[in-house]
Specification:
The protein is built from 2 helices and 3 strands; from the N terminus they run αβββα. It is of the alpha+beta class.
Length: 61
């Protein structure tokens, strides 16, 4: 999955950008108080994208 598609899915489901790390972007779901990091790779593995969505408490893409 492309990184930009995952970020678009996160933001569509109510997650907000929190901050930039050195190798990751941190997103937060303020409704459920969940935080997860998105690596800065062009392609993100399907299993990793499912884990990020699970960590944030949103449906899988």
């Amino acid at each position: 999955m492309k990184r930009k598609d995952l970020i678009r899915h996160l933001e569509k489901n109510g997650c907000l950008f929190l901050r930039e790390g050195s190798n990751h972007t941190i997103y937060v779901n303020r409704v459920k108080n969940e935080v997860s990091s998105v690596p800065r790779h062009r392609e993100i593995d399907e299993n990793l994208s499912k884990k990020i969505c699970k960590d944030l408490g949103i449906p899988r893409p």
